[in-house]
Amino acid sequence: EASRRAPGAVTVCSSPMMATAQQRVSLDIDLRRAVEADRLTVHYQPVVALDGGRIVGYEALARWPDQERGWVSPDAFIPAAERNGLISDIGLRVLRQALRDKRRYGGSFDTWLSVNVSVVQLDDDTFADQVLRAMADEGMSGEQLRIEVTESALLASARSRAQLIELRRAGIRVLVDDFGTGFSSLASVRRLPIDGIKISRELLHDEEPGLPDPTVVRAVRLLAAGAGVTDIIAEGVESALEVRTLAALGMPYAQGFHLGRPAPASRALRWPLAPASVN
Length: 279
Ligand code: C2E
Ligand code: MG
Ligand code: MG
Ligand code: MG
Prior knowledge:
Structural class: alpha/beta
Bound molecules: ligand C2E, magnesium ion
Helix content: 40-55%
Shape: globular
Order of helices and strands: HHEEEHHEHHEHHEHEHHEHEEH
Largest sheet: 8 strands, mixed, barrel
């Protein structure tokens, strides 16, 4: 406790820049403690087939409940973990927890599990081996796992692509996350070792609040078909009207608050029933 909040620290570091640096250090220290004490947890958000509304998979999302901060957003602690070297440990813990949760709560259901992977993890040439060992330990086959990576990660290095190729050889599918945000170029989809695309809300909607842009949906579907990519998932679907529009445009899968919010395993994985209304 003493090292985290030294007496007088706030008055000593009075400039905004120092405060920020100090907040970073304190977040890093608290995150490390949380990881070491195994206090991070995993929530699961369903992926839904728009043709009928069946839940086909779940995305595992890391959660950090901190006594003082409350639930810290992954958008804050994942980048911190990528900076301070904790990401590989966190990523492996999330994966192992997700595999255990799936076996415990959703063992008999034929749903896939999708896990986010950082570019930093992929750049480690033991990564694929770690994943395959965890799968073997938990008795999970490659076909049941998806890995979500950003497009910039896919383009990052030959080493990271080699990891993905090794995972795909074991039947694990690779999805491009947040497609349409960063440097997405539609052409790169053809050249990358991928099996699916998660279309970002930003690409689907040019205005807020708006409906999914039919031109975007058609373009991505055409491109995916040409590249042999089968898993196409619309992200961030927040209304019934969006769901109906996407379904009418032939979007195969979707994810979003309207279809199911991220929830703990005991609630999310136990009864993979269709959500209230898809069509
Ligand atoms: P992501 O992988 O793109 O995950 C989707 C994020 O959008 C999640 O935020 C989810 O809660 C949120 N979301 C889902 N449906 C909706 C919706 O309808 N509307 C809106 N506005 N948001 C929606 P979350 O859980 O806060 O995670 C944020 C990001 O943190 C993730 O984005 C992912 O990039 C990263 N992340 C989370 N867990 C992990 C992890 O275990 N490892 C790594 N490397 N990254 C993670
Ligand atoms: Mg994701
Ligand atoms: Mg995403
Ligand atoms: Mg994201």
